[in-house]
Amino acid sequence: MPDSELDRLDPQPVVVKLQSGFALEVVRLKTRQMFRLLKVLTHGAGPLVQQQLDFGADAAEFGRKLMALVVISVPDAENEFIEFLASMTKPTGLVEGKGRKLTKQEQEDNKVIWEKYQDELNNPEPMDLLDLVEAIITQEAPELQALGKRIASLTEAFSKTGAATEVSPPPTPQELHEAETVTLPETSPEPSTS
Fold first, then answer.
1. pTM for the whole thing?
2. Fewer CB atoms near the end CB (10 Å): N or C, the chain?
3. pLDDT surpassing 50 at residue 9
């Protein structure tokens, strides 16, 4: 979490150096990355997420529990986790055009860096994986906790309005059959005119 307003306005990138010496920059979590993280957590940790995550807890405690849940989710959500890592990082050393077209050499240099990046993230070292998880969660835990609190308050408000009603189960085949065999009351004969 940034320490000052200046850090919020101009945050310094978080860089993780892998054991191979290759460096990755951790990007900020946005909607698509959040959905990827949720896919990892729900696929890997499932019901533990609701049981273990307390959005009202101390920020450091929340971060530790979130980190633990992510790590224990990896074996059951291996591919989802690698996709999440790829969406949360980018290689350092890329040449960015910043309004100008890259030269052919700059494009080639970037291509080489991206290929190395893909090789590194395809099957990262276990310690690299832990370093990346720690950097990502440390950076994003405060925002995820705030988001969780907001969702919890919206859910609470929704349930208080009475809009959240229990949905009745669909009728059983027996109930459907009984509904079809309902007899209609006899009708009186048509009045006659004489």
1. 0.70
2. C
3. yes
